[in-house]
Amino acid sequence: MATPRSERSRSGWRAVLVGLGLILLAVLIGPIFIGPIERNIELFFLSVGALAAIFTGQFGWPLVRAAATEPIALTVAVLVFGAAARIARPAFDRGLQRLRTTVSARWIYFGLIVLLGLLSSVITAVIAALLLVEAIAMLKLDRPSETAAVVLACFAIGLGAALTPVGEPLGTIAISALSADFWYLMRLLGPLVMAGIVIVAALSLFISPHSGASLYAARPDDGWHEIVLRAVRVYAFVAGLVGLSWGMRPLVDAYISRMPHTALFWLNSISAVVDNATLTAAEIGPALNHSQQRAVLMGLLISGGMLIPGNIPNIVAASRLGISSREWARIGLLTGLPLMALCFAVLHWMS
Fold first, then answer.
1. How many angstroms separate the CA atoms of 78 and 96, rounded?
2. DSSP letter at 274?
3. Contacting residues for 321 by C-beta, under 8 A, at least 6 apart
4. Which of 97, 142, 261, 334 could form a disulfide with 291 if both were Cys (CB 3.0 to 4.6 A apart)?
């Protein structure tokens, strides 16, 4: 027979889980439907992360230290490579123009996708997306082929950037939540990610580019203050996600860690409409085994490329190049759903 104290304990535990569920719901739908949240996403995540940590008793000096230090590597990478990209832009433009006169546009697409996919884990997903926009602005080909190339490239950038904690917030949060070393995600996901980059790059060889009405290209012409501001925003965003990750650990331990990796993989197809770093903060924790971690992250990475809100490179490229949600979905879903099915089969075989 349950004692009053045990009943109170269970009631308190249920209240914590309900509260975390409401916080998670706000995190998932707030940036999508509420304009002020979308425009001030960094402050929103800082507030929600602190609230989740306080609610679950995780708020304290260890969390403050983690939130202050974990974003540093990614922030420095965004700052350094943002400055390098600005300085090297004239040389990049000249090189691309020379390449355009000697190499088929189809192979330029292929090379861009492979190169940016592989480099994104070092130069960051944001800088890789800006370089992609710059390249597309220089090519001046037809809109359908450019749209297809951009979507495929953003799949590759999103995949490749996750291999290190300096590539994008997803990697930073995963490494922080798992207390893992710098190369952990490379060991966990490397072969799958590399295969994914090669597959989406190979798909670009079926594009038939020709001269025509190209995408509207708002070429990145960032001043030094914009480069610094971008780095500050990344720092605040990741710091908030660290707090959210710590606060969500009871939810991970109670429910997510008990789900089979197959269910976790398909559950994360919602990353098509929700930024995958947010879902990483809510789902990844030390209670997950390697198969579950791999399923969560691969589900997030692939589905994150299918629609514009799913990943940072998508948002950057679509806004700068004027790609509509319908145009993106037409290519993204056609590419992402077969990739999801293929990856699911490989994960099932690996397990």
1. 23
2. S
3. 133, 136, 137, 146, 150, 215, 216, 217, 218
4. 261
- Helix pair 41-55, 224-247: axis angle to 10 deg: 20
What are the tens digits of pLDDT across the range 251-275?
777 777 788 888 889 888 877 767 7
- CA R_g for the chain: 21
| Spatial distance between the Cα atoms of 240 and 141, rounded to a whole number of angstroms | 40
Nearest to 239 by CA among 178, 296, 173: 173
Are the beta carbons of 288 and 259 closer than 8 angstroms? no
Element (H, E) at 189: helix 184-204
User: Please, are residues 123 and 309 in contact by the beta-carbon 8 Å criterion?
Assistant: no
Tokens 């355009």 locate to 100
Residue-wise pLDDT tens digits, 180-197:
999 999 999 999 999 999
CB contact burial 36-73 (16+ within 10 A = b; e otherwise): ebeeebbebbbebbbbbbebbebbeeebeebbeebbeb
Helices and strands (H and E) in the chain: how many: 17, 0
Could you give the angle at the alpha carbon of 87 between the alpha carbons of 85 and 88, nearest 5°? 65
pTM: 0.84
CA gap 261, 91 in Å, rounded: 46
Q: How many residues in total does the chain contain?
A: 351
Q: What are phi and psi of 55, to 5 degrees?
A: -60, -35
* CB-count exposure of residue 102 (10 Å: 0-12, 13-18, 19+): exposed
Residues 339 and 351: their CA atoms lie apart, in Å, by 18
